[in-house]
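Reminder to self: tokens first, then the designed residues, so the page reads top to bottom the way the pipeline ran.
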């Protein structure tokens, strides 16, 4: 299902793409900025630089991955590269899964670079850094597959990037939205919207429960585990309680990547060239 030459081809294109080089440069620059701002803090300078840098680099890595994936896929369609590759002995599923695998590898590499920079910012808790790095890797992979899906469905690179970043924003805010929805509704329309939000939360990854900066300072257990609003999604909390942090991250990532790949495959197989 995965073509190694095609995966290598995509990775080579990423190395030559100025966007990925710019992303790595900005990650290093962001780490330097965090150290500079941490030096201006009155107390706990290392912790300030650690938390500020980790939060900023997490967002930066997602933006870079999403932009590269969306613009790369749309460029392949515009230059007829997709049609050329499909004329070779490769199926559409091979094409789709190979690109997804390549984007996942890039996501993990970016997460590794970000984790390395965060390690150099201060003295993070070792266990917390490992859990945080794994969660960032899973988050980047989920968003890269989401970018692949939207860039397959939408004909505009900018539109697919905005749609993917919109999904990312919703995934980061879903816990807060569910917490608000759990309050007693004042009107019937609010009760309906609350039920709609409960349904939406099932198909949206809980990124608000991943990559928490408190893990870097106090560790996962020392920070009280995973922080979340009370009654903001019982199913996610049950999964976290039974599977642990790493198990929850792995299962959630696998489920949502499989869902996005299935949707992308359904659209790609029906498309006429």
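Designed residues (273 positions):
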């Amino acid at each position: 299902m995965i073509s190694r030459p095609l995966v290598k081809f995509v990775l080579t294109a990423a190395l030559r793409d100025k966007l990925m080089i710019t992303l790595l440069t900005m990650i290093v620059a962001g780490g330097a900025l965090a150290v500079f701002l941490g030096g201006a803090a009155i107390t706990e300078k290392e912790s300030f630089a650690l938390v500020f840098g980790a939060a900023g680099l997490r967002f930066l890595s997602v933006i870079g991955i999403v932009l590269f994936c969306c613009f790369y896929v749309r460029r392949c369609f515009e230059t007829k590269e997709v049609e050329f590759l499909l004329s070779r002995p490769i199926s559409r599923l091979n094409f789709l899964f190979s690109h997804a695998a390549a984007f996942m590898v890039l996501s993990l590499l970016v997460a590794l670079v970000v984790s390395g920079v965060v390690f150099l910012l201060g003295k993070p808790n070792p266990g917390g850094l490992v859990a945080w790095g794994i969660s960032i890797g899973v988050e980047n992979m989920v968003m890269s597959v989401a970018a692949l899906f939207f860039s397959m469905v939408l004909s505009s690179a900018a539109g697919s990037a905005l749609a993917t970043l919109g999904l990312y924003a919703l995934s980061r805010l879903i816990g807060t939205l569910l917490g608000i929805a759990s309050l007693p509704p004042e009107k019937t329309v609010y009760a309906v919207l609350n039920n709609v939000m409960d349904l939406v939360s099932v198909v949206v990854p809980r990124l608000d429960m991943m990559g928490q900066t408190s893990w870097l300072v106090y560790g996962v257990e020392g920070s009280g585990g995973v922080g979340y609003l009370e009654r903001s999604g019982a199913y996610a909390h049950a999964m976290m309680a039974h599977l642990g942090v790493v198990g929850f991250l792995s299962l959630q990532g696998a489920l949502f990547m499989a869902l996005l790949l299935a949707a992308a495959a359904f659209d790609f197989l029906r498309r006429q060239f």
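The chain has one domain: 4-270.
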